[in-house]
Amino acid sequence: MPKAALITGITGQDGSYLAEHLLTLGYEVHGIVRRVALEEPERRLGRIVHLGERLELHPAALESYPSIFQILSRHRFDECYHLAAQSFVAESFADGFSTMSTNIDGTHYMLAAVRELQPECKFYFAGSSEMFGKVRESPQRETTPFHPRSPYGISKVAGFHLTMNYREAYGMFCCSGILFNHEGPRRGFEFVTRKISSGVARIKLGLATEVRLGCLDARRDWGHAADYVRAMHLMLQQPTPDDYVVATGEMHSVREFCELAFAEVGLDYHDHVRVDPAFQRPAEVDQLLGDATKARAVLGWRPTCTFRQLVAEMVHSDLKGLMGRASPLDRSAVAVTSL
Questions:
Q1: Which residue of the set 16, 67, 92, 128 is catalytic?
Q2: What pTM was computed for the model?
Q3: Per residue in 37-51, pLDDT tens?
């Protein structure tokens, strides 16, 4: 019998890459989606539509414990990957209440349902480098204290401690991945990296003239989402549950991302990028840099995509998507011309 995995947030960037990865490993893959997604598959299931009938999707809402309970009572899973969240930091400032409700209650409901119905199921929680926030040390590792600077970061800290509590109090196999920024052609357009890459494509094709951004000097540890989902899976294959930082160990600024992205199409970012205070956070996180020594030593995990390759892939994918030659969601169709 193949292993069965349940993914919340399967329609998102990470969920789609994880679903692909698990399918290549022979898993039976299930996903939780909102009912409206099944009613509008063309618009809401774009990242996983190419997987077709290889997935089994179940309608439910993270805010509804009964709907989660029903899925877990009807199907057996070996592994559960809890990726779903309101993950856009700016939106968490605009609507902190829904961010807290979705991210904290949703995590609690998932853990409670797994414990009640399938306590032997291994559980993964998607933590975030935003939990470190105003960093106490650099680089950040598993023992670095948290100081979140946004409602999103706060909600992830709560989910992290909930997951740890279920591990310690009930002996469940629960792991948290403290993932630093990870991007790719499937990133949402509201995130700064995709905003830049899609903006570059639109400007190159004469569909726009500028990109408006917030803080250009914010520095992040950026990797590729397809690399990071491998680490998620590896965590649940270990003999004992634990928490891991997943990062590249390299830090780059938003300004550097802009410079490389515009250079990919022969443009100078100075001519097209405008700083707009409207996009700056009330409490900024200036820099995040991860130390993934533990993940390398215990999981045998290493990133395969460089920062330059990541930027190039995103830009060329958005270019091809706009020109209609290939879907911006199809990584295999992207020719990276600047490595």
A1: 128
A2: 0.91
A3: 565 666 678 899 999
